[in-house]
Amino acid sequence: MSRSFTTVKPGLQTCVQELPGRIGFLEQGFPFSGPFDAWSFRQANLLVGNDRDAAALECQFVGPSLKLDTDCLIAISGADMRPKLDGEAVPMWTTVAVRAGQELVLGAAMTGARAYIAISGGVATEPVLGSRAVFHQAGVGGHALVAGQVVPLGDNGNAGGVFTIPEDKRPVFSKDKCWTIEALKGPNDDWLSEETVKTFFSAEWKVQAKSSRTGIRLTGPEFGFSKRALNKNADHGHDPSNIIDHGYPLGAVNLAGQTPIILVHDSPSTGGFINPFTVASAALWKLGQVKPNEVLKFRSIDRAEAGALRAEIDRSTQVGVLDRV
Amino acid sequence: MLYDALRFFPGGDRAIEVELGDEMDFTINFIVHKLVAAVRDAKFEAVVDLIPELASFQITYDPDIMSYEDLCREVEGIYAGLGRGATGSLPSRLITIPVLYFDDETAACIADYRKTYPEKTPDPELVCELNHLPDRAALQRAHAGTEYWVAALGFWPGLCSLLALHPGARIIAPKYNPPRTHTPKGAVGIGGALTCIYPDATPGGYQLIGHTPAPTYDGAQRLPDFKDSLALFRAGDRVRFAPVGLEEYEDIKARVAEGSYRHDIIDYQVFSVDRYLDWAKAQGAEG
Protein backbone atom coordinates (compact mmCIF):
# COMPACT_ATOMS: atom_id res chain seq x y z
CA MET A 1 0.00 0.00 0.00
CA SER A 2 1.37 3.41 -0.84
CA ARG A 3 1.92 5.77 2.07
CA SER A 4 0.75 9.38 1.97
CA PHE A 5 -0.95 12.24 3.77
CA THR A 6 -3.81 14.42 2.55
CA THR A 7 -3.78 18.20 2.94
CA VAL A 8 -7.01 19.29 4.65
CA LYS A 9 -6.00 22.97 5.12
CA PRO A 10 -2.73 24.16 3.62
CA GLY A 11 -1.78 26.80 6.21
CA LEU A 12 -0.19 30.08 5.16
CA GLN A 13 2.72 28.58 3.21
CA THR A 14 3.61 24.96 3.87
CA CYS A 15 6.43 23.67 1.65
CA VAL A 16 8.41 20.47 1.34
CA GLN A 17 12.07 21.10 2.17
CA GLU A 18 15.14 18.88 2.08
CA LEU A 19 18.87 19.22 2.76
CA PRO A 20 21.33 20.13 1.39
CA GLY A 21 18.95 21.82 -1.07
CA ARG A 22 19.36 22.24 -4.81
CA ILE A 23 23.12 22.08 -5.33
CA GLY A 24 24.91 22.83 -8.61
CA PHE A 25 22.38 25.10 -10.32
CA LEU A 26 23.21 28.52 -8.87
CA GLU A 27 24.94 29.37 -12.14
CA GLN A 28 21.60 28.98 -13.94
CA GLY A 29 19.85 31.13 -11.33
CA PHE A 30 18.32 28.41 -9.11
CA PRO A 31 18.76 29.17 -5.40
CA PHE A 32 19.66 26.44 -2.88
CA SER A 33 16.25 26.57 -1.15
CA GLY A 34 16.05 24.04 1.76
CA PRO A 35 14.78 24.54 5.33
CA PHE A 36 15.11 28.07 6.74
CA ASP A 37 15.79 26.72 10.25
CA ALA A 38 17.91 23.65 9.55
CA TRP A 39 18.51 23.07 13.29
CA SER A 40 14.82 22.47 14.09
CA PHE A 41 14.34 20.65 10.77
CA ARG A 42 17.08 18.12 11.49
CA GLN A 43 15.92 17.43 15.03
CA ALA A 44 12.37 16.70 13.78
CA ASN A 45 13.77 14.16 11.33
CA LEU A 46 15.94 12.47 13.97
CA LEU A 47 12.89 12.03 16.23
CA VAL A 48 11.05 9.91 13.64
CA GLY A 49 14.08 7.80 12.71
CA ASN A 50 14.76 9.56 9.40
CA ASP A 51 18.10 10.68 8.02
CA ARG A 52 18.43 14.19 9.47
CA ASP A 53 18.43 15.70 5.96
CA ALA A 54 15.29 13.86 4.70
CA ALA A 55 12.40 15.77 3.10
CA ALA A 56 9.94 17.20 5.64
CA LEU A 57 7.44 20.08 5.86
CA GLU A 58 8.20 23.70 6.68
CA CYS A 59 5.15 25.66 7.93
CA GLN A 60 5.25 29.47 7.83
CA PHE A 61 3.38 31.61 10.44
CA VAL A 62 0.18 29.47 10.32
CA GLY A 63 0.47 25.70 10.06
CA PRO A 64 -1.61 23.20 8.04
CA SER A 65 -4.17 20.52 8.87
CA LEU A 66 -3.12 17.13 7.55
CA LYS A 67 -4.85 13.75 7.54
CA LEU A 68 -2.31 10.92 7.80
CA ASP A 69 -3.39 8.11 5.47
CA THR A 70 -1.09 5.58 7.10
CA ASP A 71 0.29 4.56 10.51
CA CYS A 72 3.46 6.53 11.05
CA LEU A 73 5.62 8.49 13.48
CA ILE A 74 5.63 12.25 13.36
CA ALA A 75 7.59 14.97 15.15
CA ILE A 76 7.02 18.71 15.28
CA SER A 77 9.78 21.23 16.02
CA GLY A 78 10.56 24.91 15.53
CA ALA A 79 7.85 27.53 16.11
CA ASP A 80 5.13 26.60 18.60
CA MET A 81 1.92 26.30 16.54
CA ARG A 82 0.02 24.41 19.30
CA PRO A 83 -0.17 21.10 17.40
CA LYS A 84 -3.19 18.87 18.02
CA LEU A 85 -3.92 15.32 16.93
CA ASP A 86 -7.67 14.60 16.61
CA GLY A 87 -8.28 17.58 18.90
CA GLU A 88 -5.78 16.59 21.62
CA ALA A 89 -2.64 18.62 22.23
CA VAL A 90 0.55 16.76 21.32
CA PRO A 91 4.04 17.65 22.59
CA MET A 92 6.64 19.26 20.34
CA TRP A 93 10.28 18.08 20.07
CA THR A 94 8.99 14.54 20.76
CA THR A 95 8.11 11.49 18.65
CA VAL A 96 4.34 11.00 18.28
CA ALA A 97 2.81 7.73 17.02
CA VAL A 98 -0.09 8.36 14.62
CA ARG A 99 -2.66 5.89 13.32
CA ALA A 100 -4.02 5.98 9.76
CA GLY A 101 -6.94 8.43 9.49
CA GLN A 102 -5.88 10.74 12.33
CA GLU A 103 -5.78 14.49 11.68
CA LEU A 104 -2.90 16.74 12.71
CA VAL A 105 -3.82 20.41 13.11
CA LEU A 106 -1.33 23.26 13.57
CA GLY A 107 -2.43 26.82 14.39
CA ALA A 108 -0.72 30.21 14.33
CA ALA A 109 2.85 30.51 15.62
CA MET A 110 2.99 31.56 19.29
CA THR A 111 6.79 31.76 19.43
CA GLY A 112 9.00 31.79 16.33
CA ALA A 113 7.84 31.85 12.72
CA ARG A 114 8.41 28.39 11.23
CA ALA A 115 7.45 24.94 12.45
CA TYR A 116 8.70 21.66 10.98
CA ILE A 117 6.75 18.43 10.62
CA ALA A 118 8.82 15.31 9.99
CA ILE A 119 7.06 12.05 9.13
CA SER A 120 8.71 8.63 9.33
CA GLY A 121 9.85 7.57 5.86
CA GLY A 122 10.15 11.22 4.79
CA VAL A 123 8.17 13.08 2.15
CA ALA A 124 8.61 11.37 -1.22
CA THR A 125 7.73 14.01 -3.81
CA GLU A 126 9.54 13.86 -7.16
CA PRO A 127 12.99 15.55 -6.96
CA VAL A 128 13.56 18.42 -9.43
CA LEU A 129 17.18 19.16 -10.38
CA GLY A 130 18.30 16.71 -7.72
CA SER A 131 16.26 17.99 -4.78
CA ARG A 132 12.78 17.90 -3.26
CA ALA A 133 13.30 21.36 -1.76
CA VAL A 134 10.54 23.71 -2.93
CA PHE A 135 11.31 27.18 -4.33
CA HIS A 136 7.71 28.33 -4.04
CA GLN A 137 7.91 31.66 -5.89
CA ALA A 138 9.25 30.12 -9.10
CA GLY A 139 7.47 26.78 -8.65
CA VAL A 140 10.71 24.78 -8.71
CA GLY A 141 10.20 21.41 -6.99
CA GLY A 142 6.49 22.24 -6.66
CA HIS A 143 4.63 24.94 -4.75
CA ALA A 144 3.26 25.33 -1.24
CA LEU A 145 0.63 22.71 -0.35
CA VAL A 146 -2.96 23.29 -1.49
CA ALA A 147 -6.16 21.89 0.04
CA GLY A 148 -6.89 18.36 -1.11
CA GLN A 149 -3.30 17.68 -2.19
CA VAL A 150 -2.17 14.11 -1.50
CA VAL A 151 1.55 13.94 -0.75
CA PRO A 152 3.46 10.63 -1.01
CA LEU A 153 5.66 9.37 1.84
CA GLY A 154 8.70 7.12 1.73
CA ASP A 155 9.08 3.69 3.33
CA ASN A 156 8.78 3.52 7.09
CA GLY A 157 12.41 2.35 7.26
CA ASN A 158 14.01 3.08 10.62
CA ALA A 159 10.90 4.11 12.51
CA GLY A 160 10.99 2.74 16.03
CA GLY A 161 10.97 4.22 19.49
CA VAL A 162 9.60 7.37 21.03
CA PHE A 163 12.23 10.02 21.71
CA THR A 164 12.57 13.60 22.80
CA ILE A 165 15.15 16.34 22.28
CA PRO A 166 16.54 17.52 25.65
CA GLU A 167 15.80 21.19 26.19
CA ASP A 168 19.44 22.22 26.28
CA LYS A 169 19.99 20.83 22.77
CA ARG A 170 17.08 22.69 21.16
CA PRO A 171 17.53 26.07 19.45
CA VAL A 172 16.82 28.94 21.85
CA PHE A 173 14.23 31.41 20.57
CA SER A 174 14.24 35.06 21.61
CA LYS A 175 11.80 35.86 24.41
CA ASP A 176 12.03 39.66 24.11
CA LYS A 177 11.57 40.10 20.31
CA CYS A 178 15.26 40.93 19.96
CA TRP A 179 17.72 38.56 18.28
CA THR A 180 21.53 38.67 18.24
CA ILE A 181 22.73 37.57 14.81
CA GLU A 182 26.38 36.61 14.35
CA ALA A 183 27.79 38.06 11.11
CA LEU A 184 31.12 38.45 9.33
CA LYS A 185 32.51 41.47 7.49
CA GLY A 186 32.65 41.09 3.72
CA PRO A 187 32.63 40.58 0.85
CA ASN A 188 32.03 44.32 0.20
CA ASP A 189 32.56 46.02 3.58
CA ASP A 190 35.28 48.13 1.90
CA TRP A 191 32.50 49.91 -0.06
CA LEU A 192 31.14 51.45 3.18
CA SER A 193 32.60 54.20 5.35
CA GLU A 194 34.39 53.00 8.49
CA GLU A 195 31.75 54.80 10.53
CA THR A 196 28.93 52.85 8.86
CA VAL A 197 30.70 49.52 9.39
CA LYS A 198 30.80 50.32 13.12
CA THR A 199 27.19 51.50 13.15
CA PHE A 200 26.01 48.29 11.48
CA PHE A 201 27.22 46.26 14.46
CA SER A 202 25.87 48.63 17.12
CA ALA A 203 22.47 49.65 15.71
CA GLU A 204 19.09 47.98 16.12
CA TRP A 205 17.55 46.77 12.85
CA LYS A 206 13.81 46.30 12.60
CA VAL A 207 12.46 43.46 10.44
CA GLN A 208 9.99 44.76 7.83
CA ALA A 209 6.67 43.05 7.10
CA LYS A 210 7.83 42.44 3.51
CA SER A 211 10.14 39.63 4.64
CA SER A 212 9.99 36.06 3.39
CA ARG A 213 12.10 33.15 2.19
CA THR A 214 13.33 35.44 -0.61
CA GLY A 215 14.80 38.04 1.77
CA ILE A 216 14.58 39.69 5.19
CA ARG A 217 14.20 43.46 4.75
CA LEU A 218 15.50 45.71 7.50
CA THR A 219 14.91 49.28 8.63
CA GLY A 220 17.67 51.15 10.45
CA PRO A 221 20.22 53.95 10.22
CA GLU A 222 21.44 55.41 6.92
CA PHE A 223 24.51 53.92 5.21
CA GLY A 224 27.59 55.97 4.34
CA PHE A 225 29.98 54.90 1.59
CA SER A 226 33.71 54.79 0.98
CA LYS A 227 35.74 56.01 -2.00
CA ARG A 228 35.42 52.60 -3.63
CA ALA A 229 31.62 53.07 -3.90
CA LEU A 230 31.61 56.78 -4.71
CA ASN A 231 34.47 56.92 -7.20
CA LYS A 232 34.19 53.89 -9.45
CA ASN A 233 34.11 52.76 -13.08
CA ALA A 234 30.71 53.65 -14.63
CA ASP A 235 30.12 49.97 -15.52
CA HIS A 236 29.31 49.38 -11.83
CA GLY A 237 26.15 51.52 -12.10
CA HIS A 238 24.88 54.86 -10.84
CA ASP A 239 24.02 54.26 -7.18
CA PRO A 240 26.81 53.99 -4.57
CA SER A 241 25.39 50.55 -3.67
CA ASN A 242 25.65 49.31 -7.30
CA ILE A 243 28.41 46.92 -8.33
CA ILE A 244 28.96 44.96 -11.56
CA ASP A 245 26.65 41.93 -11.25
CA HIS A 246 28.24 39.37 -8.97
CA GLY A 247 27.35 36.22 -7.01
CA TYR A 248 25.26 36.64 -3.84
CA PRO A 249 26.39 34.50 -0.86
CA LEU A 250 23.71 32.80 1.26
CA GLY A 251 23.16 35.03 4.30
CA ALA A 252 24.63 38.15 2.68
CA VAL A 253 23.37 41.52 3.90
CA ASN A 254 22.59 43.01 0.49
CA LEU A 255 22.33 46.78 0.21
CA ALA A 256 19.90 48.09 -2.44
CA GLY A 257 20.07 51.88 -2.26
CA GLN A 258 19.53 52.37 1.50
CA THR A 259 17.53 49.18 2.20
CA PRO A 260 19.47 46.26 3.63
CA ILE A 261 17.99 42.88 2.66
CA ILE A 262 19.40 39.67 4.14
CA LEU A 263 19.58 37.13 1.33
CA VAL A 264 18.29 33.77 2.45
CA HIS A 265 17.40 30.37 1.00
CA ASP A 266 15.13 31.44 -1.90
CA SER A 267 16.91 34.75 -2.63
CA PRO A 268 18.41 35.77 -5.98
CA SER A 269 21.71 34.01 -6.79
CA THR A 270 23.31 37.10 -8.37
CA GLY A 271 22.68 40.80 -8.87
CA GLY A 272 24.10 44.29 -9.03
CA PHE A 273 24.13 45.43 -5.40
CA ILE A 274 26.92 45.20 -2.81
CA ASN A 275 26.98 42.70 0.09
CA PRO A 276 28.98 44.41 2.86
CA PHE A 277 28.31 41.73 5.52
CA THR A 278 27.32 38.06 5.63
CA VAL A 279 25.42 36.26 8.39
CA ALA A 280 27.34 33.27 9.79
CA SER A 281 25.94 29.99 8.46
CA ALA A 282 25.32 28.86 12.05
CA ALA A 283 23.03 31.89 12.64
CA LEU A 284 20.85 31.43 9.53
CA TRP A 285 18.33 29.34 11.49
CA LYS A 286 17.49 32.37 13.63
CA LEU A 287 16.39 34.32 10.55
CA GLY A 288 13.87 31.53 9.91
CA GLN A 289 12.30 32.18 13.32
CA VAL A 290 12.31 36.00 13.27
CA LYS A 291 8.92 37.71 12.88
CA PRO A 292 8.12 41.07 11.27
CA ASN A 293 8.69 44.04 13.63
CA GLU A 294 11.19 42.13 15.75
CA VAL A 295 14.67 43.59 16.17
CA LEU A 296 18.03 42.24 15.00
CA LYS A 297 21.39 43.19 16.47
CA PHE A 298 24.46 42.00 14.61
CA ARG A 299 27.53 40.71 16.44
CA SER A 300 30.81 40.75 14.52
CA ILE A 301 32.60 37.41 14.56
CA ASP A 302 35.52 35.89 12.63
CA ARG A 303 35.75 32.65 10.66
CA ALA A 304 37.16 30.74 13.62
CA GLU A 305 34.16 31.60 15.79
CA ALA A 306 31.79 30.84 12.89
CA GLY A 307 33.40 27.40 12.72
CA ALA A 308 32.93 26.80 16.45
CA LEU A 309 29.22 27.76 16.16
CA ARG A 310 28.81 25.39 13.19
CA ALA A 311 30.33 22.54 15.17
CA GLU A 312 28.03 23.20 18.12
CA ILE A 313 24.89 22.98 15.95
CA ASP A 314 26.24 19.90 14.22
CA ARG A 315 26.67 18.16 17.59
CA SER A 316 23.11 19.12 18.57
CA THR A 317 21.67 17.56 15.43
CA GLN A 318 23.10 14.04 15.74
CA VAL A 319 21.20 10.87 16.70
CA GLY A 320 23.15 10.79 19.96
CA VAL A 321 21.25 13.78 21.41
CA LEU A 322 17.92 11.90 21.49
CA ASP A 323 16.55 10.87 24.88
CA ARG A 324 14.35 7.78 24.94
CA VAL A 325 10.96 8.50 26.50
CA MET B 1 40.49 46.56 -16.49
CA LEU B 2 41.75 43.07 -15.76
CA TYR B 3 43.51 43.18 -12.37
CA ASP B 4 47.14 42.02 -12.13
CA ALA B 5 46.14 39.40 -9.58
CA LEU B 6 42.95 37.79 -8.32
CA ARG B 7 41.25 39.60 -5.43
CA PHE B 8 39.58 37.42 -2.81
CA PHE B 9 36.77 38.53 -0.49
CA PRO B 10 35.11 36.27 2.10
CA GLY B 11 31.31 36.01 1.91
CA GLY B 12 30.64 34.68 5.41
CA ASP B 13 32.06 31.31 6.44
CA ARG B 14 30.93 29.37 3.36
CA ALA B 15 31.49 31.58 0.30
CA ILE B 16 34.36 33.36 -1.46
CA GLU B 17 34.01 36.17 -4.00
CA VAL B 18 36.87 36.21 -6.49
CA GLU B 19 37.22 39.41 -8.54
CA LEU B 20 39.22 39.44 -11.79
CA GLY B 21 38.53 42.98 -12.97
CA ASP B 22 36.11 45.90 -12.78
CA GLU B 23 34.59 46.18 -16.25
CA MET B 24 31.75 44.62 -18.22
CA ASP B 25 34.04 43.33 -20.92
CA PHE B 26 34.09 40.22 -23.10
CA THR B 27 37.77 39.40 -22.43
CA ILE B 28 37.44 39.57 -18.64
CA ASN B 29 34.24 37.51 -18.74
CA PHE B 30 35.85 34.91 -20.98
CA ILE B 31 38.77 34.55 -18.54
CA VAL B 32 36.25 34.19 -15.67
CA HIS B 33 34.64 31.25 -17.48
CA LYS B 34 38.02 29.71 -18.28
CA LEU B 35 39.09 29.91 -14.62
CA VAL B 36 35.75 28.62 -13.31
CA ALA B 37 35.97 25.65 -15.70
CA ALA B 38 39.50 24.90 -14.42
CA VAL B 39 38.40 25.15 -10.78
CA ARG B 40 35.49 22.83 -11.56
CA ASP B 41 37.82 20.35 -13.31
CA ALA B 42 40.07 20.27 -10.25
CA LYS B 43 37.14 18.55 -8.43
CA PHE B 44 37.87 19.88 -4.95
CA GLU B 45 35.79 17.96 -2.44
CA ALA B 46 35.25 21.23 -0.57
CA VAL B 47 33.74 23.14 -3.53
CA VAL B 48 29.94 22.98 -3.29
CA ASP B 49 28.86 25.36 -6.05
CA LEU B 50 30.30 27.92 -8.49
CA ILE B 51 28.75 31.02 -10.08
CA PRO B 52 30.66 32.65 -12.96
CA GLU B 53 29.63 36.31 -13.31
CA LEU B 54 30.63 39.29 -15.48
CA ALA B 55 34.02 40.07 -13.93
CA SER B 56 34.05 37.80 -10.87
CA PHE B 57 32.94 34.44 -9.61
CA GLN B 58 31.60 33.02 -6.38
CA ILE B 59 32.69 29.80 -4.71
CA THR B 60 30.43 28.18 -2.14
CA TYR B 61 32.59 25.78 -0.14
CA ASP B 62 32.62 23.53 2.90
CA PRO B 63 35.05 25.13 5.37
CA ASP B 64 35.17 21.91 7.41
CA ILE B 65 36.91 20.23 4.44
CA MET B 66 39.19 23.06 3.29
CA SER B 67 39.96 26.44 4.88
CA TYR B 68 39.37 29.80 3.22
CA GLU B 69 43.09 30.45 3.03
CA ASP B 70 43.92 27.06 1.48
CA LEU B 71 41.15 27.30 -1.11
CA CYS B 72 42.24 30.83 -2.14
CA ARG B 73 45.80 29.54 -2.55
CA GLU B 74 44.58 26.62 -4.70
CA VAL B 75 42.60 28.97 -6.96
CA GLU B 76 45.61 31.29 -7.30
CA GLY B 77 47.72 28.31 -8.34
CA ILE B 78 45.19 27.28 -10.99
CA TYR B 79 45.03 30.86 -12.32
CA ALA B 80 48.83 31.03 -12.57
CA GLY B 81 48.83 27.78 -14.56
CA LEU B 82 46.27 29.02 -17.11
CA GLY B 83 48.46 31.60 -18.81
CA ARG B 84 47.31 35.16 -19.36
CA GLY B 85 44.64 36.52 -21.63
CA ALA B 86 41.73 35.16 -23.62
CA THR B 87 42.62 32.69 -26.32
CA GLY B 88 41.37 29.42 -27.81
CA SER B 89 38.04 28.24 -29.15
CA LEU B 90 34.97 26.64 -27.68
CA PRO B 91 31.69 25.13 -28.88
CA SER B 92 29.09 27.91 -28.76
CA ARG B 93 25.44 27.56 -29.74
CA LEU B 94 23.79 30.40 -31.67
CA ILE B 95 20.19 30.94 -30.55
CA THR B 96 17.87 33.30 -32.43
CA ILE B 97 15.18 34.96 -30.35
CA PRO B 98 12.19 36.54 -32.13
CA VAL B 99 11.31 39.97 -30.72
CA LEU B 100 8.38 42.27 -31.25
CA TYR B 101 10.06 45.59 -30.48
CA PHE B 102 7.99 48.27 -28.68
CA ASP B 103 5.09 45.83 -28.13
CA ASP B 104 1.86 46.58 -26.25
CA GLU B 105 2.59 44.41 -23.21
CA THR B 106 5.83 46.15 -22.20
CA ALA B 107 4.32 49.52 -23.21
CA ALA B 108 1.51 48.88 -20.70
CA CYS B 109 4.08 47.95 -18.03
CA ILE B 110 5.99 51.20 -18.65
CA ALA B 111 2.75 53.23 -18.58
CA ASP B 112 1.78 51.55 -15.31
CA TYR B 113 5.08 52.55 -13.67
CA ARG B 114 4.68 56.13 -14.96
CA LYS B 115 1.36 56.43 -13.17
CA THR B 116 3.38 56.45 -9.92
CA TYR B 117 6.52 58.10 -11.37
CA PRO B 118 5.27 60.45 -14.14
CA GLU B 119 8.71 62.11 -14.45
CA LYS B 120 10.20 58.85 -15.78
CA THR B 121 10.96 59.11 -19.53
CA PRO B 122 9.40 56.12 -21.36
CA ASP B 123 12.04 53.42 -21.74
CA PRO B 124 12.57 53.42 -25.55
CA GLU B 125 12.89 57.22 -25.65
CA LEU B 126 15.29 57.25 -22.70
CA VAL B 127 17.53 54.64 -24.33
CA CYS B 128 17.49 56.54 -27.67
CA GLU B 129 18.36 59.79 -25.94
CA LEU B 130 21.28 58.39 -23.92
CA ASN B 131 22.76 56.55 -26.90
CA HIS B 132 22.30 59.34 -29.48
CA LEU B 133 19.89 57.27 -31.57
CA PRO B 134 17.42 59.41 -33.58
CA ASP B 135 14.35 57.20 -33.14
CA ARG B 136 12.90 53.80 -32.18
CA ALA B 137 13.68 52.34 -35.61
CA ALA B 138 17.35 53.18 -35.13
CA LEU B 139 17.29 51.62 -31.65
CA GLN B 140 15.75 48.43 -33.05
CA ARG B 141 18.38 48.28 -35.85
CA ALA B 142 21.23 48.80 -33.39
CA HIS B 143 19.90 46.28 -30.88
CA ALA B 144 19.15 43.56 -33.45
CA GLY B 145 22.31 44.24 -35.43
CA THR B 146 24.78 42.28 -33.31
CA GLU B 147 25.31 38.89 -31.76
CA TYR B 148 25.29 38.73 -27.96
CA TRP B 149 27.45 36.66 -25.63
CA VAL B 150 25.71 34.89 -22.72
CA ALA B 151 28.08 36.23 -20.04
CA ALA B 152 26.23 34.90 -16.99
CA LEU B 153 22.92 33.58 -15.69
CA GLY B 154 21.39 34.41 -12.35
CA PHE B 155 19.11 36.43 -10.11
CA TRP B 156 16.21 34.23 -11.23
CA PRO B 157 16.14 30.78 -12.89
CA GLY B 158 17.16 31.26 -16.52
CA LEU B 159 17.70 35.04 -16.42
CA CYS B 160 20.60 35.85 -18.77
CA SER B 161 23.13 38.68 -18.88
CA LEU B 162 23.95 39.35 -22.55
CA LEU B 163 26.97 41.39 -23.73
CA ALA B 164 26.91 42.78 -27.30
CA LEU B 165 29.74 41.23 -29.32
CA HIS B 166 29.88 44.02 -31.91
CA PRO B 167 31.98 46.79 -30.37
CA GLY B 168 29.90 49.46 -32.15
CA ALA B 169 26.61 48.10 -30.79
CA ARG B 170 27.13 48.78 -27.10
CA ILE B 171 23.87 50.33 -25.88
CA ILE B 172 23.79 51.53 -22.29
CA ALA B 173 20.94 52.45 -19.96
CA PRO B 174 20.49 53.14 -16.25
CA LYS B 175 18.38 50.77 -14.16
CA TYR B 176 15.00 51.79 -12.78
CA ASN B 177 15.18 53.57 -9.43
CA PRO B 178 13.13 52.38 -7.61
CA PRO B 179 12.77 49.03 -9.41
CA ARG B 180 9.49 47.80 -10.93
CA THR B 181 7.50 45.39 -8.82
CA HIS B 182 6.35 43.56 -11.96
CA THR B 183 7.83 42.79 -15.40
CA PRO B 184 6.00 40.73 -18.06
CA LYS B 185 7.46 37.30 -18.78
CA GLY B 186 9.45 37.52 -22.03
CA ALA B 187 10.21 41.25 -21.78
CA VAL B 188 13.54 42.32 -23.32
CA GLY B 189 15.40 44.96 -21.36
CA ILE B 190 18.66 46.92 -21.23
CA GLY B 191 20.47 47.75 -17.98
CA GLY B 192 24.03 49.04 -17.79
CA ALA B 193 25.73 47.56 -20.87
CA LEU B 194 23.66 44.36 -20.70
CA THR B 195 20.55 43.03 -22.36
CA CYS B 196 18.33 40.55 -20.54
CA ILE B 197 15.22 38.55 -21.33
CA TYR B 198 12.89 38.13 -18.35
CA PRO B 199 12.28 34.36 -18.04
CA ASP B 200 9.24 34.84 -15.81
CA ALA B 201 7.07 37.59 -14.38
CA THR B 202 9.41 39.09 -11.75
CA PRO B 203 10.38 42.46 -10.30
CA GLY B 204 12.99 44.20 -12.44
CA GLY B 205 15.03 47.27 -13.21
CA TYR B 206 16.06 47.11 -16.88
CA GLN B 207 14.63 49.54 -19.48
CA LEU B 208 12.11 47.63 -21.59
CA ILE B 209 12.30 47.76 -25.40
CA GLY B 210 10.39 44.71 -26.62
CA HIS B 211 8.94 41.30 -25.97
CA THR B 212 9.67 37.76 -27.10
CA PRO B 213 6.93 35.12 -27.29
CA ALA B 214 9.61 32.37 -27.20
CA PRO B 215 10.16 31.14 -23.61
CA THR B 216 13.66 31.14 -22.14
CA TYR B 217 12.54 29.17 -19.06
CA ASP B 218 10.11 26.26 -18.89
CA GLY B 219 9.70 24.92 -15.35
CA ALA B 220 7.29 22.22 -16.53
CA GLN B 221 9.65 21.19 -19.40
CA ARG B 222 6.67 21.21 -21.76
CA LEU B 223 8.48 22.37 -24.92
CA PRO B 224 10.87 19.96 -26.67
CA ASP B 225 13.90 22.29 -26.35
CA PHE B 226 13.62 22.13 -22.55
CA LYS B 227 13.68 18.36 -22.24
CA ASP B 228 17.24 18.39 -20.79
CA SER B 229 17.18 21.71 -18.95
CA LEU B 230 14.66 24.08 -17.40
CA ALA B 231 16.60 27.10 -18.69
CA LEU B 232 17.28 27.72 -22.40
CA PHE B 233 20.66 29.46 -22.17
CA ARG B 234 24.06 28.35 -20.97
CA ALA B 235 27.00 30.67 -20.42
CA GLY B 236 29.06 30.82 -23.62
CA ASP B 237 26.03 30.60 -25.93
CA ARG B 238 25.46 33.42 -28.41
CA VAL B 239 22.11 35.09 -28.99
CA ARG B 240 20.72 37.07 -31.92
CA PHE B 241 17.47 39.02 -31.82
CA ALA B 242 15.25 38.73 -34.92
CA PRO B 243 12.64 41.51 -35.21
CA VAL B 244 9.18 40.09 -36.02
CA GLY B 245 5.87 41.75 -36.88
CA LEU B 246 2.63 41.29 -34.99
CA GLU B 247 1.40 38.45 -37.21
CA GLU B 248 4.50 36.27 -36.70
CA TYR B 249 4.55 37.19 -33.00
CA GLU B 250 0.98 35.90 -32.57
CA ASP B 251 1.78 32.78 -34.58
CA ILE B 252 4.76 31.95 -32.34
CA LYS B 253 2.63 32.60 -29.26
CA ALA B 254 0.05 30.09 -30.53
CA ARG B 255 2.73 27.47 -31.24
CA VAL B 256 4.17 27.93 -27.73
CA ALA B 257 0.68 27.52 -26.27
CA GLU B 258 0.08 24.25 -28.12
CA GLY B 259 3.56 22.97 -27.17
CA SER B 260 4.95 22.63 -30.72
CA TYR B 261 7.31 25.63 -30.84
CA ARG B 262 10.97 24.83 -31.57
CA HIS B 263 13.66 27.40 -30.83
CA ASP B 264 16.10 28.32 -33.57
CA ILE B 265 19.28 26.81 -32.10
CA ILE B 266 22.39 26.28 -34.22
CA ASP B 267 24.44 23.69 -32.41
CA TYR B 268 27.38 23.01 -34.76
CA GLN B 269 29.47 26.15 -34.43
CA VAL B 270 32.78 26.71 -32.71
CA PHE B 271 33.60 30.19 -31.43
CA SER B 272 37.21 31.29 -31.91
CA VAL B 273 38.12 33.81 -29.26
CA ASP B 274 41.31 34.87 -31.06
CA ARG B 275 39.52 35.50 -34.36
CA TYR B 276 36.70 37.28 -32.55
CA LEU B 277 39.07 39.63 -30.74
CA ASP B 278 40.95 40.41 -33.99
CA TRP B 279 37.61 41.14 -35.69
CA ALA B 280 36.38 43.29 -32.81
CA LYS B 281 39.61 45.29 -32.88
CA ALA B 282 39.23 45.89 -36.64
CA GLN B 283 35.59 46.93 -36.18
CA GLY B 284 36.61 49.30 -33.41
CA ALA B 285 39.31 50.84 -35.63
CA GLU B 286 36.75 51.42 -38.40
CA GLY B 287 34.13 52.80 -36.03
Automatic annotation (TrEMBL), chain A:
Q: Which GO terms describe its molecular function?
A: ATP binding; hydrolase activity; transferase activity
* Domain spans labelled Carboxyltransferase: 27-316
Determine if Mitochondrion is one of this entry's keywords: no
Superkingdom of the source?
Bacteria
InterPro entries for the chain: CT_A_B, Cyclophilin-like_dom_sf, PxpC
Q: Keyword Nucleotide-binding, does the record have it?
A: yes
Q: Which UniProt keywords apply?
A: ATP-binding, Hydrolase, Nucleotide-binding, Transferase
Q: Can you name this protein?
A: Biotin-dependent carboxyltransferase
UniProtKB/TrEMBL annotation, chain B:
A Pfam family that this protein carries is CT_C_D
Instruction: Return the Gene3D superfamilies for the record.
Output: 3.30.1360.40, Cyclophilin-like
Query: Keyword set for this entry?
Result: ATP-binding, Hydrolase, Nucleotide-binding
Which top-level group of life is the source organism from?
Bacteria
Q: Which InterPro entries does the record match to this protein?
A: CT_C_D, Cyclophilin-like_dom_sf, PxpB
User: What GO molecular function annotations does the UniProt record carry, in alphabetical order?
Assistant: ATP binding; hydrolase activity
Q: Where is the Carboxyltransferase domain?
A: 6-233
Q: Mind telling me which residue stretches traverse the membrane in this protein?
A: none
Name of this protein? Allophanate hydrolase subunit 1
